[in-house]
Amino acid sequence: MSDKPQRNSTKKTISGNQQVLDFLDKLQHPLQEEIEEVRRIILSADERFTEHIKWNAPSFCIGNEDRITFNLKGKGFFRLVFHCGAKVKPKLPLPLFDDHTGILEWQSNDRAVVRFLNMDDVKDKEENLRWVIGKWIETSGSS
């Protein structure tokens, strides 16, 4: 019989949703309520969304592919980053779609951000944000 202590092989796995809830519970950000409201909007925009913590922030997936991630590093604002996942993809000649709402700031043809300043800004952008989320999922290969 070995004198080595036995490791517990039944590691408790925390669900992605619980990871995000724990993260938000510990988060100290002046726009906490706004962040939680945008999270609610994202999750209600498509029932296929799952969430977890990636890149030190809540990230939202469809079919295990990250598509939308918070960037909480700004002062007086936060960003929502729309992307096509963690893997490098071939460069696109044009943006994924024409954003008639004007809320996206294109960083490249397959990456864009939306900046939020306060709750009024979140509410003002909500309808357009829902449209952008749907269009992003439709055109980014996660439909």
Number of helices, where a helix is a run of at least 4 consecutive DSSP H or I residues: 3
Strand content: 15-25%
Q: Give the quaternary arrangement of the chains.
A: single chain
* Structure summary, number of beta strands: 6
Taken in chain order, the helices and strands follow as HHEEEEEEH
Helix content: 25-40%
By helix and strand content, what is the structural category? alpha+beta
* Parts with pLDDT < 50 across at least 5 consecutive residues: none
Number of domains: 1
**CATH-derived architecture:** Alpha-Beta Complex
Radius of gyration: 18 Å
What would you say this structure looks like, in words?
This is DUF1801 domain-containing protein. Residues 32-137 form the YdhG-like domain. The protein is α+β, with helices and mostly antiparallel strands. It has a single domain, classed as Aspartate Aminotransferase, domain 1. The protein contains three helices and six strands; from the N terminus they run H-H-E-E-E-E-E-E-H. A six-stranded antiparallel sheet has the order 1-2-3-4-6-5. Strand 5 and strand 6 (111-116) form a beta hairpin. Helix 2 (32-45) packs parallel to helix 3. The radius of gyration is 18 Å and the shape is globular. The mean pLDDT is 88.
